[in-house]
Amino acid sequence: MLPIYLLEDDDVQRENYIKFINNSIMINDANMQLKLATAKTEGLFDSCVAPEKGIFFLDMEIGDNNTAGLDAAERIKKEVPLAQIIFITTHDELSLVTLERRIAPLDFILKNKGIDSIKKSINNDIVLAQKYYNNFAHHSQNLFNYRIGSRFFNVLMDDVIILFTEKVAPGQVTLITKNQRSAFSGSLNSIESVYQDLFRCDRSYLVNLDNATTYDSKNRILTFIDNSTCKVSFRKGRELLSILEEKNISK
Question: CA angle 237-239-240, nearest 5°?
């Protein structure tokens, strides 16, 4: 589900935007949720815990700071790689500054055009953002994405062999591909929910069966193209045999 964040310090305007956003989600049957509506940039970053994507409706002026929303957008672009930013502001003169800072907003909604125009623009932006993310998901479905610190990486799903965790390193996932080995913070449960083509053969292993070569069903050992192996749980053994028969992998 795509999260939406709203930064607006005027109480009346914020309530209007909340209503517009929620109505647009419902009308368009969008797979989105308004996660936060706040009056302060601090509240925005306290609640926005390093997502990889999101829609951000930002007022440009917060309190006495004419560029608070602009500064927030700059930080969002660094921390949220797939962020879509929409400014709602009276400061049309700052539109060029967004180019100078390379923020590249999806839209620049002017408050002085009236509430009906704002409502229409918010709806159009939600529809456009949904199309953007759908297109991205379609083109990136063969990529595995992960994050180390503030840097994001992706590898071809065809190259992924194994992901596993170890008791000695809780909260860390090790990735083995055809060309590299990496470790990053995460959990197999969250990865499995996103990359459903990977097979959970054991509590500690997620594997790409397209890169499996043989399966020793007696000892429940699965071997891969790089000669790495992993144990298959008794519970998953029958399911694995059925899949391997379809893939014509030797047992």
Answer: 65
Instruction: State the burial class of residue 5 (Cβ atoms within 10 Å of its Cβ: 0-12, 13-18, 19+).
Output: buried
94-103: pLDDT as tens digits: 666 676 677 8
Summarize pLDDT for 70-95 with one digit per residue, the tens.
Answer: 889 888 888 887 789 999 988 776 66
Structural domains for the chain: 2-139 (3.40.50.2300), 143-247 (2.40.50.1020)
Contact between residue 78 and residue 150 where contact means Cβ atoms under 8 Å apart: yes
State how far the Cα of 63 lies from the Cα of 40, in Å rounded to an integer: 9
Global confidence as pTM: 0.58
- Give, for 22, the enclosing helix (H) or strand (E): helix 11-27
Burial class for 194, CB neighbours closer than 10 Å (0-12, 13-18, 19+): exposed
The span from the first CA to the last CA of the chain, in angstroms, equals 39
HEC assignment per residue over 47-81: HCCCCCEEEEEEECCECCECCHHHHHHHHHHHHCC
